[in-house]
């Protein structure tokens, strides 16, 4: 495997040849890797899509780029051409991590972390500079990774992530849409979807059975309810969507054990029709509902004391 001999913009870019990221069979064979369906390993091989993803990330001078699951490095090559000051690659597969470390050894900005992103702690990529997150996420764990990113979100200025198309549609769905659900509401608590585009299944190796979707996330500038109410809002979302076909009055009673009258009081106090269903509520309604549920539960606690 050859080291980079050319430089573009701010960094060293790996050379082409038999082990190029857009020629996956040779690259995987060189690394001794057989794509794992259990790990959701579908490698992006379309250069134009890779160009578009990294362009959507809006990488700027002085920033830190964090790539999740870089795999063969097709996105990394383009990230390294941007004027970022630091590039952190988090790769679970030890053979791919070793390959990336070798390919980008000449670029002092690049650090390769051979770990599961779900086990990564905030201080492993903490930076005074804005952090831009990029990743072609494994389809089978993408929603869990998004949840982990929300927990680690301090300092993240933007995320550009690829999901299975159906999951992407659920993430960006708005209240009232058929795809809207708990994942939609959970995401809206932390992020706004700035842009999105579809990627055909033929752009991957091995080819998955479904298309993908790239979403660009920007942090909410007005966190609904604020950090102090985060847990209560998440509990309200879970309760409401636990039985999404039931009315909200019945869903709260079923999940939180609230008597019908208490559930109705909480909903009316939040300005929500008790006969409505979870799929009609936006994140602001959930924030109001969380507050009135807390009030009702506190009142019940005093009466029962």
Characterization of this structure:
With 305 residues, the protein is an alpha/beta fold. It has two domains: 6-219, Rossmann fold (3-Layer(aba) Sandwich), CATH 3.40.50.150; 227-304, Orthogonal Bundle (Helicase, Ruva Protein, domain 3), CATH 1.10.8. 37% of the residues lie in helices and 18% in strands. It has helices spanning 24-31, 47-56, 74-79, 94-103, 142-151, 165-172, 182-190, 230-241, 248-256, 260-269, 283-304; strands spanning 6-8, 11-13, 43-44, 64-68, 86-90, 110-113, 131-136, 156-164, 191-199, 204-205, 212-219. Strands 6-5-4-7-8-11-9 form a seven-stranded mixed β-sheet. A two-stranded antiparallel ribbon has the order 1-2. The longest helix is centred in the last third of the chain and has 22 residues, at 283-304. It is elongated, with a radius of gyration of 22 Å. It starts with 5 loop residues before the first strand and ends with a helix. Residues 1-18 have low confidence and may be disordered.
Task: Summarize this structure briefly.
The chain is 37% helix and 18% strand. Helix 9 packs across helix 10.
Keywords for this entry:
305 residues; alpha/beta; Rossmann fold; Helicase, Ruva Protein, domain 3; 2 domains; two-stranded antiparallel ribbon; 11 strands; disordered N terminus
Helical percentage = 25-40%
Give the spatial strand order of the biggest sheet. 6-5-4-7-8-11-9
Using the alpha-carbon principal axes, give the shape.
elongated
Structural class by secondary-structure content = alpha/beta
CATH class of the largest domain: Alpha Beta
Secondary structure tally: strands: 11
Largest sheet data: 7 strands, mixed
- CATH topology description of the largest domain: Rossmann fold
Q: What's the helix-strand series?
A: EEHEHEHEHEEHEHHEEEHHHH
**Total DSSP helices:** 11
The CATH superfamily of the largest domain is known as Vaccinia Virus protein VP39
* Uncertain stretches of 5 or more adjacent residues: 1-18
Q: What is the CATH-assigned architecture of the largest domain?
A: 3-Layer(aba) Sandwich
Total domains, how many? 2
